[in-house]
């Protein structure tokens, strides 16, 4: 075939007829991840958030104060609000019901008309039409003008025109949908995940009652699991929830609020006796996990106010005598704060589109914080002194921590020093192909070293329980030998000119960091200690998807000396024994309960827990940083009562030795 013939053939193969035009909601079904992030757990729950966000928009506009969310049998979702109800009249341009337009046309809705909504939530802005497209069935019921309007859809396509099905005294909208199992890899909703988001929305929008009910299965008392979320004081209540497990330094949280150029700003902050900064920022109810200009404005206003007060009150002169130099970081040690702004036209940037880019917002937040925080310090000299005493300690601890970090850096592999002595490294040098197992104790470490594939799997045994970083000052953390070994083995460095606590992952030596501990209470405690350390000091590892937990089996069923099968849960053990004995064969099977990895020989550890073909790894993610912060502070902090209550409520899920 000549070159000319090849070009003609190529032209025929890729001509105008090959260009596809996806009409209606076909594009969403064809490429769902472009619209909701993914088709896994996160994307599935995002469908609920999109529907609830519509109700929240009504609430922010002043027309709704009650939202009812239900998980129905079969994992369908129902969301009912008492807002105005989606309009059902004929759309002047589309020549069909406005309800059908909202549910079948992307980027259609009242939020694009600033006369309807001043600001609106929703991260991707695709609205309920996207939910409709990704559902096998969706029913919309609208209660307005004394009538009940109804329309049903399958895979985004209406089954009939909007019709009146009854009369009512209600106002509002009910959306009921069934996620499409052919699109989502999981269609099972997690109650706790939805509850965390509903709680968050209640704090961010005070005065709104949000109820979540799980109708899939009744509890032992014969009722469905249900919670009602309501906040009278908004962010003040939010701060109280976040710091419930910490000792407060000032009697009441500091509340800051104001509005500039049509941008309302709400902030609540308080100081506790810890040495960590816990900032949570939101734009139009969206958790801006990457921060942005509103967070920059808050930090600038905070530093400016404290510096001005310190200079005016003579505190800076006292600090100079103590040879202590204050940095902006010191003002945020032990600070818990929630920053919420409502921006009419938000501009998001960053990889996850959760970083605010509006430059004007930085000046607005800076100005409001600077003025109101300065007033607070002037009017509350006792609280101001308490805060500055903490700032002084933070500055001294920062110097000690910097010295400790430098020791870690000097000991690091990149500085020419050897790796930790107990590290059994792998031969592969491509980080994307390597794994580091953090293993509890020398005994388990020995089995892991013998059973691993030394080409790509490295083993670092840890001596007992590592330091509880939730209770320790920063310089104590970097003095810990086990923690120094983790830093050195990973090859990461700490601190940049912009952020003294930032973790530099450029030289990370492994892209899978796997926590492998015994399947007993002590093993679970060690896993929690390591996860607390990663969350507080190496969160970037988790955010980049590098942290995993191994899942060793709990039981080995054998007949005599012959292994029959492994079981990972009590239920699996019961089922396997029932299956093995169903033909009448009894008392010939023994069940061995593994309480430690050291009880498994290297071959067993490999085939059950370390072999990539057969193992199960649980990736550690942060779906909700606010809730993660609350849980870690509760489980690992000083307050005993909340921890006891949590254990009592979750005792049935605990890993108890048989």
Structure explained in plain terms:
With 658 residues, the protein is of the alpha+beta class. It has three domains: 204 residues, Heat Shock Protein 90 (2-Layer Sandwich), CATH 3.30.565.10; 165 residues, Ribosomal Protein S5, domain 2; 174 residues, Rossmann fold. The strands form six sheets. Strands 1, 2, 3, 4, 5, 6, 7, 8 and 9 form a nine-stranded mixed β-sheet that branches. A hairpin with a 5-residue loop joins strand 15 and strand 16. It is globular and about 75 Å long. About 2% of the residues have low confidence.
Summarize the SSE layout with pairings:
Layout: H1 3-13, H2 26-30, H3 33-36, H4 41-60, E1 66-72, E2 76-81, H5 98-104, H6 127-133, E3 135-144, E4 147-154, E5 157-158, E6 163-167, E7 172-179, H7 191-204, E8 209-218, E9 224-229, H8 235-242, E10 254-260, E11 263-271, E12 278-283, E13 286-287, H9 293-313, H10 315-321, E14 335-341, E15 348-349, E16 355-356, H11 359-379, H12 381-411, E17 435-440, H13 441-451, E18 457-462, H14 474-479, H15 481-490, E19 493-494, E20 503-504, E21 512-516, H16 521-537, H17 539-543, E22 547-550, E23 555-559, E24 562-567, H18 570-580, E25 590-593, H19 602-610, E26 617-619, H20 625-636, H21 640-649
Parallel strand pairs: 1-8, 12-14, 17-18, 17-21, 21-22
Antiparallel strand pairs: 1-2, 2-7, 3-4, 3-7, 4-5, 4-6, 8-9, 10-11, 11-14, 12-13, 15-16, 19-20, 22-26, 23-24, 23-25
Helix pairs in contact: 4-6, 4-7, 9-11, 13-19
